[in-house]
Amino acid sequence: MLCILYCGKAKAVRGFERGRASVNTGWLQAVNKKEHTSYFRSTMAAAGCVVRSLRLFCRRLQFPQHETRHLRNYWKCGTFALSNSLRQPSLTSAACLHTGKVYCALSPTITVTDEPDVLYQKVEVLVKGHDRAVLDSYEFFTTMAAKELGINISKVEEPKKKIERLTLLKSVHIHKKHRVQYEMRTHYRNFEFLRLTGSTARVFLEYLQRNLPEGVAMEVTKTEIEKVPEHILEPLWNSIPEKEQSSQ
Amino acid sequence: MAAAAMCSVVMSLSRINQRLGVLTLNPVHKGAAYSKGVSVRGRRGGPPSSRPRREAGPPRWEKMTPDQDWTAVYPTAAAFKPSAVPLPIRMGYPVERGVPPAKEGNLELIKIPNFLHLTPAAIKKHCEALRLFCTEWPSALDSDAHCEEHFPIQLESRDYVFAGPSLRNPQARVVTLRVKLSSLNLDDHARKKMIKLVGERYCKKSDTLTLTADRCPLRKQNKDYAFYLLTVLYHESWKTEAWEQEKTVEDMEEYSWEDSPSQRNVLDTLLRMRTLGDSADAAVDTDSVRKELLASSEVQEYAASVSRLKNEGESESSVLQYREAVKKVLRL
Fold this sequence. Notes:
heterodimer, A: about 250 residues, alpha+beta, 5-stranded antiparallel β-sheet, two-stranded parallel ribbon, 7 helices, 7 strands, about 40% helix, B: alpha+beta, elongated
């Protein structure tokens, strides 16, 4: 399940810290110095507070063992929210005995890896369904979830519905003049989110997809932005002059 | 006779046993949704079973308070339960000038997906937990221009979520790479060669090169292939081959006025005008005169107007500019 056992969150901050080490040679040279320092100050501040909050979270999780135990109890009914477990802190000692060490192994970890986070300039979500009311409700859910998580929603559109009609013979045999017509209506809803990090996109998209109603399909278009790879910065012929002459 | 009596007794006993057996089997099937209090096979219009069906108590919604925790009633997606939802909902077609049917036993309400598990309170709770796993967007990249400046390459890919005989969509492996040529390190010759190499994949208006990779079965492989293509194009465009010396005027991407028929014609015309004007000067060094004419401002203006006409096409302003330039050159 998603909530607690989610691991492998890459932090964008770490990647830029790495970039900081290569400031003299790397791409940041071109950046305006003022912007650079303020940007790094903000990222370092962000890193600091995220690391602090992570430590707090880890401490919070290690200390009250009953929270993790409650997750196990609610697992059967497929509860997804952590805060449900916080409602009833009391538990019988028998259950404690059973669940003791297992939850140390299953204790939730947010791992912060060193690899730089992927950056998505745009994530477009197109949902298709046969019922407009269902898509309306889903739109309310999506917009609210995005607002809560601080994701920038640039536009929510409703492309025109498409109706696929087919005409069939009404009778099994002959009676060509009598037909029956069926139609399939597909309604659409388009959401566009701007500037998401890889971790945020993964979490948010999984949340949306797990709560996709029955009979609704989704298509996600992600636009990732990347730096120009190092081997394309300079033509390699410059470093091998003999080869250049021979090619000429 | 005793045997017959015994047989009949045994038969009746067996029948009773059967009935008892049926009765004992009933509790096992109690959990099934379709079970009735009395099994049809064992009873054919017989007396009702000694174990009565449990009376349905008052519906759950009667005990609900307005300030209850709704997220506990519907923690996950579940079918509509009329006894658990305290709303007086009606749904369906009103038959015989009546009202839409009530919620009890209403199949329409059960069929349609409900969002009772995704109330604002529930969404807030979920997001509280999810926020810990989200990372912040770098504050320096707050606009598209900044993103373009530091991260010029854009990779587009699609994911699909749907239900069908197969969960896989073959379009999910396609990767599209977009990059602006101005952000790559290319000189003039390399840029022109690159544009010639890629052909239709380059858009002149937006200066964007689009490479679509779909020849590999996995998305990662297609992404690597797209980068490989870009690398190869880049290095090939920096190379100058021997046969590139044979580039003719037809191969040129844009019109250049130097060494063109237009330049020759203008210079010839002006020279002839001059020789007609200065009648007897025979010892005229044509080369120096040509250079002098070329350097003059009217000829430069004429050159600019002709280049503009050829490169940008005919428009009202470009034709007017050409007219002014011609008038100045011919001193009309």
